Amino acid sequence: MKNIYKLLIAGAVLSTAAACSENYLELAPESSVTKGMLFQSPVEAQYVVNGLGRIMSTQYLETQGYNGEGTVYAYNGEYPGDCLEFGNKTGWQNIVKQNYNSSSNTNVQFGWYYYYKLIGNANQVICNVQEGAGSEANQWKHVKAQALTYRAYAYTMLSQLFSRRWSDMGANGLQRGVILRLDESNDAMPCSTMGEVFAQIYADLDEAITLFSECGISRSNDANKRWQANINVAHAVYTRAALIREDWNTVIAHASQARSGYPIMGITDYMAGFNTATKEWIWEVFEDETQPMHYYSFYNYASASCLGSNSRTYPPIISKQIIDAVDPADERMAIYAIPTAEELPESKAIKLKTAGNVSSGAFYDRVKKDFKNRIYSTTTIFYYLATKFIVKSGTGDGCIPIFRAAEMYYAEAEAQYHLGNESAARTALEATVKPYNSAYTCTKSGADLFNEIKAYRKFDLANEGHSWFDLKRWGDPMVRKTWAEGGNWRPEFAGVDEDGTDKAGNYGPEAKNRWTPILPNSEANYNQLITKFESINPDGTWNRVITAEE
């Protein structure tokens, strides 16, 4: 039953249990499968929910790199962030510098297309569950709870991508949000406010958590089932949404519940390659080696061990600024090829104009020997090479974590800090560090404490799709230092805009349309009710932010 994803409903890959029924020889053609057949019982409906997981990990638009959740993590979360550089990929400067805020750019349109595909199919489930009494009532509750969790997650990610920061310009949720589609229609609709979107996210998760609790059904403890949603996943989505919304008490309320039963992994699991769920993973992107994505996969863009030409030529490199901000005694340093002073003399570092690739010498020889099981045989060697994600099998197979317990601790630490509870913030931070550095104790306070929380969050969650989203949420400037400046970024990806072109690699929170892509033409071309208005005045009128595109 591994190959159960067969049917097309509303443009997304869904699945059916028809082949498992007693009447499996009486199948109607796939084109004539009706909604009633898919939702005739919670058993069939569960296969449709499983299809939501498959949407997160499939090939899209016949374009390498477009694989669902992994695309958002790489193209939106990491490429334009400050944690990782990807080789000497100067041809990708516009992504790295966040210059793709155009409504016609495919990289912008993909996130909108993908998450509304997930929402549309979740809506099919939510609108067709058969609630009420009966022997199947709890199974139906379980089906609906999962779909609500998927929908809430998709709206959370859409909001991070296409809305401003919660408190930008003092609007506190009155900025333009995204389109709230809550039924099976695709009619033209205006954007809701950001506040309205998050109210719906909260409502979906409240209902999901209630249904999960009432139904008494959860997923298997098998690590291979971590792609299914459960009550912990709902709490984790709640935590991330509340963090974006700057709702600190709600963050704290749900972070501990999200990580309950999911302890921080040890160094052995951390070093294992992040390709299989560990005891810490709360939710993962669906992965099935019988349905691989090959060169479309996340690993072909985020791993040094994939045989694809992209990953071999442009492997991930951790920013020296991220490494320098963390205690060198941390055992997690071992997944990075960090040069010693002897391997990288200062005089040589200052002269480097690239990202630091080497083809001979002591450092090269050490990496080829010590990291031989973490990289592909012909991977280009760079100073600070990152080997967090190791291909599980095949061309680029492996799981991707969506939520880990560590993220929940960092979220709680941040929330406690904002509420003035510095002792609790330090305790939460230490919970993520001590498993890898038993001597670590945080004694910092004030702004230094917040910087410490951010530094370890960046270091621990690097390459998991958080970097750019976190910087945007914090309102921090993009700061990439070249080798001459004490970092290891290639000059093409750094620099300060001095000519008014807004094309620099380093920029502040108000640049690049406040880090907010223009709503894509793929929506605007058929939906005349959307606008580019950004916030509401006290009298109910909208403020409009004029962009270069307009």
In words, what does this structure look like?
The chain has 550 residues and is mostly helical. Helix content is 40%, strand content 7%. It is built from 21 helices and twelve strands. Strands 1-2 form a two-stranded antiparallel ribbon. The chain has a two-stranded antiparallel ribbon with strand order 3-5. Strands 4-10 form a two-stranded antiparallel ribbon. Helix 2 (42-55) packs parallel to helix 6 (137-162) and helix 16 packs antiparallel against helix 18. The longest helix is centred in the N-terminal third of the chain and has 26 residues, at 137-162.
Summarize the structure.
The chain is mainly α. The chain is built from 21 helices and 12 strands. Strands 1-2 form a two-stranded antiparallel sheet.
Lateral arrangement of strands in the main beta sheet: 1-2
Structural class: mainly alpha
Major beta sheet, specifics?
Answer: 2 strands, antiparallel
What is the count of DSSP helices, taking H or I runs of 4+ residues?
A: 21
The stretches of 5 or more residues where confidence is low (pLDDT under 50) are: 1-31, 546-550
- Shape estimate: globular
Q: How would you name the oligomeric state of the polypeptide chains in this document?
A: single chain
The percent range for helix content is: 25-40%
Number of strands: 12
